[in-house]
Amino acid sequence: MVARHLGSKKLQRTRPKFLNLMEIRQPLPAVISFLHRVSGVLLFFPGIPLLLCGLEMTLSSPQDYAQFQSLVASPLSKTALTLLLWFFLHHLCAGIRFLALDLHYGGALAQARLTSRVVLAAGIILTLLVSLLIW
Q1: What is the CB-side half-sphere exposure of residue 66 using CA atoms within 13 A?
Q2: Model confidence over 23-55: pLDDT tens digits?
Q3: Which of 11, 25, 105, 126 is deepest in the core (most CB within 10 A)?
């Protein structure tokens, strides 16, 4: 009975602590990696069907093309296009970064932090430049 009691205390001490993931501050390379995965998923699911639907509308008839133009002209659609554009550009820049990491370029801690900042800045700057054409 005593051995069982001592064993349960030992198990309680070795159990992992509760970690609140909302309070843990991740380093920037981890945030970039997470955003790369999320942007890839969002490009796949709403991105590809929206792209195919728009392509189908532009190619089916002149009336559908005019309807597509009026749909894309609304501010809500332009905002959604800008968001999808950021998903694409961030995913592209982060993918190039991860390809370089796979080739053993920029693997040191300082370089990883710098390239993470470059990816984040490049995605935002490229999105702003291209969205000027949209708006």
Answers
A1: 3
A2: 888 999 999 999 999 999 999 999 999 999 999
A3: 126
Listed in sequence order, the residues at least 6 apart from 126 whose beta carbon sits closer than 8 Å to its beta carbon are 89, 93
Beta strands in 26-87 (DSSP E): none
Domains of the chain: 27-134 (1.20.1300.10)
Rounded distance, CA 100 to CA 16, Å?
Answer: 35
Q: For 61, list phi and psi in degrees, rounded to 5.
A: -160, 160
- Please tell me whether residue 31 adopts helix, strand or coil conformation: helix
pLDDT tens-digit map of 55-111: 999 999 999 999 999 999 999 999 999 999 999 999 999 999 999 999 999 999 999
Calculate the alpha carbon distances from 25 to 1, 9, 31, 38, 56 in Å.
44, 32, 9, 18, 44
Give the residue from 14, 33, 10, 19 showing the smallest Cα distance to 119: 33
CA–CA separation, 57 vs 65, rounded Å?
A: 6
